[in-house]
Amino acid sequence: MSDSAVFFLIQILNAVQYGLLLFLVASGLTLIFGIMGIINLAHGSFYMIGAYLAFFFADATGNLWLAILIAVPLSFVFGLLLETFLFRFLYARDHLYQVLLTYGLILVFEELRGLIVGNDVHGVPVPHLLDFSIPLTATLSYPAYRLALSVICLGVASLLYLLIQKTRLGMAIRAGSINREMVQSLGIDIGMVYRLVFAIGVTLAAFAGMLAAPTTSVFPGMGNQVLIICFVTVVIGGIGSIRGAFLGAMLIGLVDTFGAVYAPRFSGMLVYMLMAAVLIWRPAGLFGRATAR
Amino acid sequence: MSRRPVLLGLGLAALIALPFFAGKYDLDLTTKIMIMAMFALSLDLLVGFAGMVSLGHAAFFGVGAYSLYLMSPEYGAASLFVSLPVAIISAGLVALVIGLLVLRSSGVYFIMVTLAFGEMFYYYAMGARWLGGSDGAYIYQRPAAPIDLGKGHAFYYLVLIFLVATYTLLRVILGAPFGRALRGIRGNEHRMRSLGFATPRYKLLAFVIAGALAGLAGYFDAAQFGVVNPELFDWRLSGSVLMMVILGGMGTLDGPIIGAIVLVSLENFLGDLTTHWLLPMGLFIIGAVLLLPHGLTDPAALWRAFREKRHA
Hints:
Radius of gyration of chain B: 20 Å
Structural class of chain A: mainly alpha
Largest interface: A-B, 42 and 40 residues
Distance between the termini of chain B: 31 Å
Strand order of the largest sheet of chain A: 1-2
Shape of chain A: globular
Helix content of chain A: over 70%
Oligomer: heterodimer
Largest sheet of chain B: 2 strands, antiparallel
Number of strands of chain B: 2
Structural class of chain B: mainly alpha
Number of helices of chain B: 13
Strand content of chain B: under 5%
């Protein structure tokens, strides 16, 4: 293959990797909205917390995989606790108050992060096993970790699909998003379903943060950056739709990656232009229900 | 209800008299509160009266502020009579373009889309060299006016005049048929449309007015502190001003002013106490949302809620 074709391939791989990572975060956001009707601004913070947990445990154990193995259950429990003690009280409230409470939550998380680990940028080393690049031509190569990252994300996305489409819990989740009372009267503990969904959403975002930590390093404000792009993803895909989140994330991955190469002057603006175009064409997003709640 | 004009008059008299016995620090703080009150009032037109929850309102604040920066010659002063209208019109025009896009959505979509468009400005300003990039830029002199705004209490009174003007303008607008139509849309947009109101046009006009007034507040912010930076566009500011509206009680014109007083004072107090002031601020916001569903201006509702809880 010629160098330019390989260069193109590398951009495609980058776009897919970014899109998949974005999907993990956005799927949690859209799941939580679609099922509980909660708009959660603090979702980016879960990504940030995941990255810092990976940094902390990788530093302590010297192994990123071990760190992830410890941090994933921690994130899940954290999600359960948050739902039980805070978010549960928001289901019946107007979106306005959900926005404000989760906004307050971001301030708390960011300050706690500053108090505990400070405001420095930290690097997380790539695991030894994957710390090499795959040579593609004489001059171009692709880092193995990024490739592995895409594979892991695809695996998680498939698991999520199976969970929602093929399990009893998935059935309760899908039913609960349509008619909460009906599910409850059929004897399913909808409170428990909500708690699990919320914890799954938190874990997905945190897991994405852990995976991203070696490629982007760990820094203050990483949560907000992701949150905004996630909102764009969900608006493009349609709120509450997992398929939409996947398509939106992939589109953003492509636009952002190729924009940075071919139109660097506008690269930061392109995703917003994409969002504007989708809003003009389909105001409820690509896979949105005709009437947004 | 009959006490309100008296209280408003007393408040205004206190603000007019304040420079005669307060120090510079308190006057600067009061000026900042008045600017934020203006900003909160503009957002209340959207949130409280038209039912549109915008999380990107800081974008227009930032456009107003950066307008002053772009109009000011280096180390010189921009003319107040030119730069102030330019700032208001620029913010209004930007609101028109953004409004045409975001008003295609509603409800929770509207929240997300306004947030995303607001952040677009933030990230653009971070990278734009002609706007000073992430460090921002300085405005070395206050705008030039017949009275020197850099000396004495001229700037304080100018801001006070515009706060009163903003309040009066909104009162007039909301008392007019336009305001009643907006409230109707907030209650039930379908009904208003079936009554023959072109609701999208009403909403767009409200969005443009709110954006222009936010630009006015941003202009004064830049003039007061002599500096612009991308933070002016940031959604933290949008969130903070939304908090002022809710805390004071949305859908009233006194509420946003009370909210601005409470929140800016609290920020100031906590900021003096600790560098990690956002932590208690965040906890305060969470507590306020959980415990004060109707804002600070309706303590009776708070008391009722408290009693119901006890009897439950």
